[in-house]
């Protein structure tokens, strides 16, 4: 039987404690599961002690006290365990909350990017539409201008023709008149008239030749002008097409750059998320 005595003194008047078998106790000696701190000495004996029956009662009291202390210590240990569990639960809750916040932020950013892309596409579509409209308008204007020019040219030609016709008529009339006059004077000045006629014919031929030459020259000039105008129009169209191609290439380059930036940002975000998660773990 093991008897533990408290700091109050020896065991209920059982002689001198030095006569008993004493063993010094360290503060970390364990009785069951509780740590004994208040006990100073351990008395080992068997059976009843000499000197009376009061020692057994004291031993029982001490045992009860020790049991109570053990219970209290067990309760404290349980409380500490519960506290640790609560702390762990709180930590888990915080981790879950943080994860949810991260997910929400990710979703928001995704939504924002989607909105931005949509806006950009809309803007691009609008720009393209505007460009197409402008081109159509320009083409229409050009066509109108060409038509107007053609009309003007036709009118000019018509006018010229009319003028020539009038001139010819006038000439014919004049000629007729002259012929009559000549017939009257025929008898008197036959030779003179013949000479004159010959001369006139020559002159007329020369004049006609000159006119023909002049007409041909004018027609040639008009044709050259038309060709130059057509060449200029073709050059303008080619320049417009080149400008459109350049604008499209620039837009494609901008899109590629933006996509690369977004991919890089996604990669960085993913890496940051992994780093933080590893630190958390």
TrEMBL record:
The lineage of its organism: Eukaryota, Metazoa, Ecdysozoa, Arthropoda, Chelicerata. It comes from Amblyomma americanum (Lone star tick). The keyword Cell membrane does not apply. It comes from the Eukaryota. One of its GO terms (biological process) is nucleosome assembly. This is Uncharacterized protein. Residues 55-77, 220-265 have a biased composition (Acidic residues). Residues 1-267 are annotated as: Disordered. GO terms for molecular function: DNA binding; structural constituent of chromatin. GO terms for cellular component: nucleosome. Keywords: Nucleus. Residues 78-94 have a biased composition (Basic and acidic residues). InterPro entries: H1/H5 (IPR005819). Residues 107-217 have a biased composition (Basic residues).
């Amino acid at each position: 039987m093991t008897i533990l005595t408290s700091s109050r003194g020896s065991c209920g008047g059982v002689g001198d404690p030095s006569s008993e078998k004493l063993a010094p106790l360290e503060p970390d000696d364990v009785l069951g599961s509780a740590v004994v701190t208040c006990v100073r000495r351990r008395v080992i004996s068997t059976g009843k002690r000499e000197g009376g029956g009061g020692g057994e009662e004291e031993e029982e009291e001490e045992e009860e006290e020790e049991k109570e202390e053990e219970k209290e210590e067990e309760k404290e240990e349980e409380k500490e365990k519960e506290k640790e569990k609560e702390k762990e639960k709180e930590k888990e809750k915080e981790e879950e909350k943080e994860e949810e916040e991260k997910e929400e932020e990710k979703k928001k950013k995704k939504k924002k990017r989607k909105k931005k892309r949509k806006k950009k596409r809309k803007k691009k579509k609008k720009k393209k539409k505007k460009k197409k409209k402008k081109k159509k308008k320009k083409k229409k204007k050009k066509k109108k201008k060409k038509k107007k020019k053609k009309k003007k040219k036709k009118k000019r030609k018509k006018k010229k023709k009319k003028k020539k016709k009038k001139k010819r008529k006038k000439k014919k009339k004049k000629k007729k008149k002259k012929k009559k006059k000549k017939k009257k004077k025929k008898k008197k000045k036959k030779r003179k008239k013949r000479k004159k006629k010959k001369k006139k014919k020559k002159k007329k031929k020369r004049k006609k030749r000159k006119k023909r030459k002049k007409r041909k020259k004018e027609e040639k000039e008009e044709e050259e002008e038309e060709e130059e105008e057509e060449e200029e129009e073709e050059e303008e169209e080619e320049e417009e097409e080149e400008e459109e191609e350049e604008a499209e290439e620039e837009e494609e380059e901008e899109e590629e750059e933006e996509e690369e930036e977004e991919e890089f940002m996604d990669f960085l975000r993913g890496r940051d998320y992994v780093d933080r998660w590893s630190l958390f773990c």
